[in-house]
Amino acid sequence: MSEPPLSPRLFDSPPLPGEVPPRLPSPFAPGAPGPLARRAAEMLRQRLELEAPRWESLWRPGGGKMFGVLVVSTPQGPPGFLSAFSGMLGGRWEVDGFAPPLFDLSARKTFLPRGEVELAELGHRLRELSKDHERAVLDSGPSSARARALSERRDALSHERAERSRALWHRLTWDYDIPNARGGWVPLASLFDPRPVPGGAGECAAPKLLAQAYRHGLKPLALAEFWWGAQPEGGGRVSGAYYPACDSKCRVVLGFMLEGLDVDPAPPLPTGGAVRVVHEDAALLVVDKDAGLASVPGRHAPGRDSVLVRLQSRYPELTSAHFLHALDAEVSGLQVLARDVETRAALQRQLARGEAEHRHVAWVEGGLPGTEGRIDLPLRGTTSGALESLAGRAHGKHAVTDWRVVESHVGRTRVWLWPRTRHAWQLRIHTAHPEGLGAPIVGDTRFGSEAGPWRLHAEGLVFTHPRTGARHDFHAPAPF
Question: Which neighbouring-strand residues pair with 412?
Fold first, then answer.
């Protein structure tokens, strides 16, 4: 395989007066990049359009990706620019005309294939166990001895696979060489140590571009990153639109790589909402969180701001396993954390038997044909794919949501929602799906049309305390 060319691509015409910025704009600044970076990005987009048949996978569902350009000054002659893509392109790490990855590909091949085979085998066993569990639930119910035993085996295998995956990723992160403008370099893992490295860190376009510039004595002048291809499965990206460097992966990496350059200061990190402890005892916690704050951090970023991380300063023993239900970052409201295994099991039994409930309130788009009902629509167990493919009678994962209209207005309906089962995106899919309400939650642009804050809030939590036997009824009014 040939190596990407080292020489920057020149512009079609020399920069105009004022097009070269006096110092490198911050990669984290929102909005459109400067004129010279936009010119470079347009030239890269023209190349991608000319080579469209070669990169047709970018336009498959969820196939788009971030591309980047870095305008650089050269020792001789006018400025030019380098190009890069995030992750892999067409199944390859190295593609002619693009900056290479920050790791030694030949070294990675000595150990990665074996690890991937092991993960694939564990994934296969996990899928088979999940099928056995679903059959046991349908045959004997979720509380049967066989269903509980299979659930425990499935959870243990899922934990083992996650630990293997984390260990493999940790091994990979020590092979990334991260340079900076001062001439120094460190392994990627050391930038985050002692915390795990977020998944995909070091593989974005911006780090590749800066590393390529430093290797060949080129001075970075301006950076632009844009999305190209189909939207990601979760939405939020438009082909051709510019986006700043990501905080979750690149804030730490680029912070080191930019040392030694004259760079505009980065905007401050966004802060999530508040989290309030509304009940505390030796067995459990009940908390009320604002929208904008995740319940738990990502698998590869355990220190990222979240309900869990904030609570750990006061309750250091807590982990993500203590959450009975983790609300999405966009969802506000009540959730409960069990502080021991017995309490968790007891609360899970109450929820499974309908002896406890977690009531949500939402605004959904449009009107509804009735005033109350039950959505009994099995879910596929994944959040990838078109809405119609995420649920259906043949998919087999039992999922039930009760609903009731609270009030109606032109174009919107306010409803109460009681999830009787627990699945990823259950309320989002059950409200939006044609076989559910056929009315997406307001603000959920993945399935609906109304942009803005999500209008989904967990406002009621009722259960019997496993230790005291007291009946608790918590209420947190919706902020909308």
Answer: 365, 409
Task: Work out the angle between the directed axes of helices 145-173 and 112-140 (0-180°, nearest 10).
Answer: 160
Listed in sequence order, the DSSP H helices in 141-267 are 145-173, 188-192, 205-215, 247-257
Residue listed under structure tokens 């110092």: 23
Distances (CA, A) of 326 to 80, 82, 323, 351: 48, 42, 6, 15
Answer for the pair 278, 334: CB distance below 8 angstroms, yes or no. Answer: yes
E strand or H helix at 428: helix 426-432
Distance CA 430, CA 417 (A): 10
Q: Is 126 helix (H, G, I), strand (E, B) or coil?
A: helix
> What amino acid positions are annotated as catalytic residues?
328
Structure tokens given for 302: 């355990």
3-class secondary-structure state, position 458: strand
Look at residues 309, 240, 244 and name the one whose alpha carbon lies nearest to residue 271.
309
Q: What is the pLDDT along the chain (480 residues), one digit of tens a residue?
A: 344 445 799 898 888 888 899 999 999 998 889 999 999 999 999 999 999 999 999 999 889 999 999 999 977 778 999 999 999 999 999 999 999 999 988 888 888 889 889 989 998 998 898 888 888 878 887 778 888 888 888 878 877 887 888 788 888 889 999 999 999 999 999 998 766 777 788 999 999 999 999 999 999 999 999 999 998 765 668 899 999 998 767 888 999 999 999 999 988 765 667 899 999 999 999 999 999 888 988 654 555 688 998 898 788 888 888 999 899 989 999 999 999 889 999 999 999 888 999 999 999 999 998 999 999 999 987 777 788 888 877 766 889 999 999 998 888 999 999 999 988 899 999 999 999 999 999 999 889 888 788 999 999 999 999 999 999 999 999 999
Name beta bridge partners: 428. none
Cα–Cα distance for residue pair 38/350, rounded to 1 Å: 57
Q: pTM for the whole thing?
A: 0.61
Q: How far apart are CA 234 and CA 150, in angstroms?
A: 31
- Nearest Cα to 102, choosing from 218, 205, 224, 203? 203
How many residues in total does the chain contain? 480
Asked if the bond preceding 198 is cis, omega within 30° of 0, the reply is no
Q: At what angle do helices 205-215 and 247-257 cross, to 10 degrees?
A: 10
The answer to whether the CB of 219 falls within 8 A of the CB of 213 is yes
